[in-house]
């Protein structure tokens, strides 16, 4: 479905649900931004050793510390910390803080003029935004079917939106 599916909100003004295409573009923008933030975050938090060790692991090389000491742990703490911060904490805080803010959107959604609301069109709480973020893992299981559902559900909801009781609207530009 496209962004044309209408829902009349309490204010009487028509609202349009943000369709799959718009949300994919917003997601790509957010991934680029998150990659930059995570890179700077890892550098400034001193997590580059974990990143270096992760690359050694992925290349099936011996994992050694900067001092040359062989690491025998199957999953070194530096790697776990790097992944926790860059893959879990930074994306969670980025999404939950921005979607529960007055803008109701991540930078990617703002660019695509999409906003996240509760089922009544109100701003969501940090807790609901957090639930929505972590529920995206459910949407990703089974070949991204929870994201693909956006194209087929009545209100353009993915599984994560349904779990968190959220809607994502397209906010057209105001005509002056």
List the helices and strands and how they pair.
Blueprint (H helix, E strand, L loop, with lengths): L5 E3 L5 E4 L2 H25 L3 H11 L18 H23 L7 H5 L2 E5 L7 H15 L4 H4 L10 H5 L2 E5 L6
Antiparallel strand pairs: 1-2, 2-4, 3-4
Give a summary of the structure in a few sentences:
With 176 residues, this protein is an alpha+beta fold.
Q: Which ranges are low-confidence, i.e. pLDDT below 50, for 5 or more consecutive residues?
A: none
Average pLDDT for all residues: 92
Shape type: elongated
Order of helices and strands: EEHHHHEHHHE
The structural class is alpha+beta
Count of extended strands: 4
* Gap from first CA to last CA: 29 Å
Q: Kindly provide the radius of gyration, computed on alpha-carbon positions and rounded to a whole number of angstroms.
A: 19 Å
Largest pleated sheet: 4 strands, antiparallel
SS strand fraction: 5-15%
Verbal overview:
- The protein is an alpha+beta fold and 176 residues long.
- Helices cover 50% and strands 10% of the residues.
- The protein contains 7 helices and 4 strands.
- It has helices spanning 20-44, 48-58, 77-99, 107-111, 126-140, 145-148, 159-163; strands at 6-8, 14-17, 114-118, 166-170.
- A 4-stranded antiparallel β-sheet has the order 1-2-4-3.
- A hairpin with a 5-residue loop joins β1 (6-8) and β2 (14-17).
- α1 (20-44) packs across α3 (77-99), α2 (48-58) packs across α3 (77-99) and α3 (77-99) crosses α5.
- The radius of gyration is 19 Å and the shape is elongated.
- The mean pLDDT is 92.
């Amino acid at each position: 479905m496209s962004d044309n599916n209408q829902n009349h909100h309490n204010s009487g003004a028509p609202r349009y649900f943000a369709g799959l295409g718009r949300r994919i573009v917003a997601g790509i923008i957010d991934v680029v931004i998150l990659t930059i933030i995570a890179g700077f975050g890892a550098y400034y938090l001193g997590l580059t050793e974990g990143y270096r060790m992760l690359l050694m692991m992925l290349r099936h090389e011996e994992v050694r510390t900067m001092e040359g000491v062989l690491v025998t742990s199957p999953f070194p703490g530096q790697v776990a910390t790097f992944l926790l911060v860059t893959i879990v904490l930074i994306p969670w805080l980025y999404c939950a803080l921005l979607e529960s803010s007055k803008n109701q959107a991540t930078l990617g959604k703002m660019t695509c003029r999409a906003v996240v609301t509760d089922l009544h069109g109100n701003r969501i709480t940090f807790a609901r935004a957090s639930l929505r973020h972590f529920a995206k893992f459910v949407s990703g299981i089974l070949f991204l079917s929870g994201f693909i559902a956006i194209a087929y559900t009545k209100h353009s909801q993915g599984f994560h939106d349904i779990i968190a009781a959220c809607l994502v609207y397209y906010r057209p530009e105001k005509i002056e």
